[in-house]
Specification:
- The chain has 224 residues and is an alpha+beta fold.
- The protein contains five helices and 13 strands.
- Helices cover 16% and strands 25% of the residues.
- The strands form four sheets. The chain has a seven-stranded mixed beta sheet with strand order 2-1-6-5-11-8-7. Strands 3-4 form a two-stranded antiparallel sheet.
- A hairpin with a 5-residue loop joins strand 9 and strand 10.
Length: 224
């Protein structure tokens, strides 16, 4: 699960875990995106109001090849640690400047395998579809930058470091989800209950009226 920040790049998760430090979107096709106070993730589409949102491909190079192909690049995620490295190397890059929708900290995005599911406290969920393929636009944006995010290894393979792409599997509710423990929002009773004796517990789940009748019979009170 990915946590939150105070909007200034500082995590506010108690456990110091991964967090989102900036979000961005743009209604028009361009290299960079504007940082916003918040974005809305729409299941099956992407970021609401973003030029790259949709069921079919929106990146113009891919539209030219096949405009009916599915859009596996709805959301672009980038690690803030990369921006730290670029700044230290003399390439200052602001959040949103590389066109990412979500800037994270504390999460090794590049190491996550395809089909990894990222779940946010708001209830939104993304599924990773692959690495972002750095293009010449990065070099046009800032000279020397492409060599920093597309590195050729000694064996000739390429190390793509410009973030990952994902699709939206579940939309956000707009509210941080409370901890439910053993409770269920749909069934009751549903949980683990203390029993007579030391450290004795009983798990009970009632899914429908038949289950409720069976429970009443077990506890010897059919009138409940």
């Amino acid at each position: 699960m990915i946590g939150r920040s105070d909007g200034n790049g500082n995590a506010i998760e108690d456990d110091g875990g991964p967090c989102v430090i900036a979000v961005a979107a743009s209604p028009v096709h361009g290299f960079s995106k504007a940082v916003l106070p918040r974005i809305a993730l729409v299941a099956g589409l992407g970021v609401a109001g973003d030029a790259h949102a949709g069921e079919t491909v929106k990146h113009r190079s891919r539209v030219r090849v096949d405009p009916t192909a599915p859009n596996w690049r709805q959301v672009h995620l980038l690690a803030a640690e990369l921006l730290d490295e670029l700044a230290a190397a003399g390439h200052p890059v602001a959040p949103g400047a590389l066109g990412e929708n979500i800037l994270t900290r504390g999460l090794d995005l590049i190491a996550l395998p395809v089909d990894t599911r990222l779940v946010f406290p708001s209830g939104a969920a993304l599924r990773i579809t692959g690495l972002r393929n750095p293009c010449r636009q990065i070099e046009d944006f800032q000279a020397g930058l492409l060599d920093r995010v597309l590195v050729r290894r000694p064996d000739g393979s390429l190390d793509r470091r410009a973030g990952i792409m994902a699709v939206v599997e579940a939309a956000a509710t707009g509210r941080e989800q409370p901890r439910l423990g053993n409770r269920s929002p749909h069934h009751a009773p549903h949980g683990v209950f203390p029993c007579a004796g030391e450290d004795s517990w009983c798990a009970i789940t009632v899914l429908d009226d038949r289950h409720w009748q069976d429970l009443c019979a077990v506890i010897g009170d059919a009138a409940l």
